[in-house]
Amino acid sequence: MPPVRVLVVDDSRAMRALIRSCLERDPGVRVVGEAGDPYEAREAVRAMAPDVILLDVNMPKMDGLAFLERVMRLRPTPVIMVSSEVAEGSALSLAARQIGAVDCVRKPMIADAHDRPFPDLAARVRAAALVPAGSLVARPPVSAPRPAQRTSGPVLAIGASTGGVDALLRILSAFPENCPPTVVTQHMPEGFIGGFARRLNGHCAAEIREATAGAPLLPGRVYLAPGHAHLEVTGRVHLVCRLNEGPAVSGHRPSCDVMFASLARLGPAAVGVILTGMGRDGAAGLLKLRAAGGHTLGQDAATSLVYGMPGAAFDVGAVARQLPLAEIGGAALALCAAAGTKD
């Protein structure tokens, strides 16, 4: 396949050069142009028709979010926001994704600029280029839905990585306020999960919180794995959160594999969902859950920003059903409700 053609938009010439040098190490990516502000970028988009745009937020003449909105409205193109202010779960990250950005990458700190800056940027560019054009639309801010019919049932576990912030927002914002107890492992740097939980709370009827050791799993609550520990479900009469600060598993801490495996003892009283993400984390744990009688779902390739994790889980037989993102939340709730009626 031909290299992915990239336009880099940043008012810093040094940052543009750094991004170019990182990308051009990958033969599957080619930087076809640079722009120092949105007006230069507008002309470059018209002239070059890039496959992917890397876009800064703070720029002269027009900020990056305003330019992103114009791109999505006039010439939908996969856009990755590259800024020091778009860490996963930040307000700017959520705003950019709602407008239509497919990914957000944080710029390296000055001290880290010479130590493998942007280590996975080329891979994320290649993944962005595969996003279907029809999904590149501006999305209005999500409002909390009215509570749906009461849902009772087992524990629901969701694992995600690259692209998962947007996927989780779409799924959790449709959950009723009395949803099944839900545990989530989203690969995210330590220190950002609390803020991500607070911002999700502004869009969700259920209560979203960062998991703490010993917290009881209750209906209507969603528990996010903290950035420094694996999240497990333990307990006999009453289920609680357990934080495990052991070594990384499948290259991650928190690990989806650890979370899913901890639910295997619940058998049919557990539902596991694996969403978009790079790598294989979650496949082995989800397979243990399914082998124990648990119900499992996976995001399909067409709607995954990166089909690595759900694809790996499907390949090993851990996924009972693959579904598009828009159908996963409803299917997971239905499985929980069905399991609850058998108790």
Automatic annotation (TrEMBL):
Domain remarks in the Swiss-Prot or TrEMBL record: Contains a C-terminal catalytic domain, and an N-terminal region which modulates catalytic activity.
Pfam families: CheB_methylest (PF01339), Response_reg (PF00072)
Catalytic residues, chain numbering: S161, H187, D281
CDD domains recorded: CheB_Rec, REC_CheB-like
Originating organism: Amaricoccus macauensis
EC number: 3.1.1.61, 3.5.1.44
Alphabetized GO MF terms: phosphorelay response regulator activity; protein-glutamate methylesterase activity; protein-glutamine glutaminase activity
GO biological process, one term: chemotaxis
HAMAP family: CheB_chemtxs (MF_00099)
Main subcellular localisation: cytoplasm
Ranges for domain CheB-type methylesterase: 149-339
Family (UniProt): Belongs to the CheB family.
Chain positions found as 4-aspartylphosphate: D56
Protein name: Protein-glutamate methylesterase/protein-glutamine glutaminase
